[in-house]
Amino acid sequence: MSNDAISARGDLRLTRLTKTYGDFNAVDDLTLTIPKGSFFALLGPSGCGKTTTLRMVAGLEEPTVGSIHLGDTDITTTRPYQRPINTVFQNYALFPHLSIFENIAFGLRRRGVKDVKEQVDKVLNLVELPHLASRKPTQLSGGQQQRIALARAIVNRPALLLLDEPLGALDLKLRRQMQIELKWIQREVGLTFVHVTHDQEEAMTMADTIAVMNEGRIEQMGSPADLYDNPETAFVANFLGQSNLIKGKIEGNDGDNLVVDLFGQKISMPKNRSHAVDNSLYAGIRPEKFRISLTGTPTRGNTLTGGHIEDVSYIGVSTQYVVSMPWGQELMVFEQNDDGVAPFDKGDEVVISWEPNFTFGLHGDEDIEAGTEVNPEEPVNE
Amino acid sequence: MKISKSQVPYLLLFPGFAFLFTFFVLPIINLAQTSTQTPISGGDTGQYTQTFAFSNYIHAFTDNKDQFLRSFVYATLATILALAISYPLAYAIAFKSGKFKNILLVLVVAPFFTSFLLRTVAWKQILGEEGFVVPTLRSLHIIGQQTTLTSTAFAVVTGMTYNFLPFMTLPLYASLERIDPRTIEASGDLYANGLTTFRRVTLPLSMPGVVAGTLLTFIPAAGDYVNASILGSPSTKMIGNVIESRYFKIVDYPTAAALSFTLMVAILILVTLYIRKAGTEELV
């Protein structure tokens, strides 16, 4: 079986995967299919189990319970060196005693490939560093080492490429550039990429599908747009961007819409965007979906009256307002600076409005702070 | 007097240089002078005069080439044995010992808390007739009923191995401990099994420790005479023993000095060749 594993191809299927350390479930009953050829991101705060999941797929950790399949081959207990899977490690883990050429050729040589030069040169060209072949890893910059780590993995054309926070050590500008490049390389080579990150922007830029993980479980899975526009839990709503979550009660139906009471004011929202299980729900609206108007001016769509501007921050492309509502909640509103001037001042009496279709509904028992307290810039779990 | 910044390095170097000059350079010059002296005719034992008799070197070497050869053979064997024992030990301490790491390191150094001589005498007792090793091996028929372990080359080599083991273990540990465990994981990830990972990644990355450890074991072992005199017999005499008896018993200072110089140069040549070889990647 082990010998077949190396040539296994197909979708990656994790079934009821669990990893327990003492009485702590790092990964808790995870079932997941990652389609062949996709760019898949596991996104979550540090300690959510994403790195443990990745290490189990690589074979560096053994699952406590559950199975891992690649296509039809069970690789749950296969040794790392017998899996057709390669990893781009967080700190790159290049071999310091070998030249860049030999670093990249390492996997090919272990599999008995005779003529490695052509393949190594090709992949060095792909990452645009052919002139560094004879250098040692310590002579390279962080960004160059990152590309070599990627080259060292993809030269083997694995069934699955795992990326463990691959851009974490790079500065912001280089990170943005590498995100675009990684996406391009993935399309170019057509391999399945599984990318682990705590950076929601990074996941959204690169991945076709994102699985948001929290406390060893998947909170929600979908395309970046799905997750952002229609989060199903408060954790997802808060971890991916910012959300205003307003406590409400479902009053009744109006065709395909629900009528919801928010502290005495009626709004409407599409039924299929509600994830509430009973009458109690949180209405969620993204800050940029809100519009602000002075009290007394006409508005469209859903309207909440009685607000006043608590705080104004001008940040160039947009202005961020904190609007205090009659029931004591402060709402966050982002307005594009289309006209170049911030039109509202602190203390202005205002009305907030938005298109009903932008509303999402969460279960009324949710902890609305979930996903806000985590600091995404925190160093990731070791 | 004010000391300028540029003078500070010299000031810091001074005590070390002064020490080395007094206790290394001067004695070496003195030794070099002694090595070419000859006895004063009609003089007392131990009275010599400078005659630039370089033939002393030829006599010293040809009379003792067996002991020279034996010294290097024993030292090489002890170094190989120490490496074979220390590498797994240092590896286990560096990668597998968890919270016991510091305790294990203290245990490695613990023998240094007793004197070198006492430990060698203790080793003699362990290997002697009254120790438990010989009767046990005899009753298991691993060694013959008449075979003894003391006064043998075996005792001398194992004694040196034991005495110099920490000098091998500590540098090995230091270089293994510095290896990023992720490079070892990366090797497994890139289709190398455990043995290949050791050959291609762990061992090459620990080479500085191997080189330092083997030098720190080989050099003192080659010049050692304590183990051979306590654990050995006349037939296991090393060059250190010859120098010791020439100097202290026969009072033949020129021969002792010539032998010392020859030993020093021989070690220097061997070490240089070794570092040249080990310094390149062809070694692994």
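qc> The beta strands of chain B are 37-39, 48-50.
qc> done
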